[in-house]
Design goal:
Shape: globular
Number of strands: 4
Oligomer: single chain
Radius of gyration: 18 Å
Helix content: 55-70%
Distance between the termini: 22 Å
Strand content: 5-15%
Strand order of the largest sheet: 1-2-4-3
Number of helices: 10
Structural class: alpha+beta
Order of helices and strands: EHEHHHEEHHHHHH
Amino acid sequence: GAAIMSDARTSATAAPSAAPSSPPVASVCDESVTGGPVATAGANDPNAAVYAEVEGQVQDLRGIAATAPVARGVFDTPSLCAYLREGFRKDNPEELVKGTETLYKELGLMPQDDSLEQLYLELLTSQVAGLYDDETKQMYVVSKDGAIGPVEEITYAHEFTHALQDQRFNLRKVVGEDTDQSDRTMARAAVVEGDATLLMSLWAQRFLTPAELVKVAGSTDPASEAILAKMPAILKDPLLFPYTSGIQLALGAFTNGG
């Protein structure tokens, strides 16, 4: 999954407020943005040792041993945008998108002059720090300069948890693919994301230094926060729910010995 702090490829999308228009959102993902992965990790990857160390630590913490190597790559913002757009159009039939957009506008849940697809892509591109593709079985970390620091490492711990979940439980079967079962999909996504978010937190507490934890805590991007703040609640809240409520669910089970 695409993690917010880190994300999965499960579909994600306050009292809703009706508004005829919205403040302009900084364009980080539109049709002009193209590209593929900035880099794909291979035998000569300078960060291979760091990745391998995190993978071993995550397997120990989660209690699941990997049954196969997981390919990994790095996205910058433009290549992430292009990837998300392709995935959105593949997974969401045009008729479904148009129908949902019409419903949201009729209910006053999104501005009349905005595009549901464009808002969703702007939201995801601004928030996703990494993702695991359960179709290609590949993980990606988002890095503007290709470097791997504590933020990218904690993201990798989250995404590698998704890879382990997929190898053990099959994420597509766990979450489901029915487009008319959004509540069920969100509930199951909360189990998946809560597990990975809790594991990520436990990993950070054990393996990051106090200085690195401070760096992670202070890594919030003001531009990304501004985009999140301007998004309609009907898109923002379901996107955040699997992480915020999911970790509460996972933590409750974990503290009771689960």
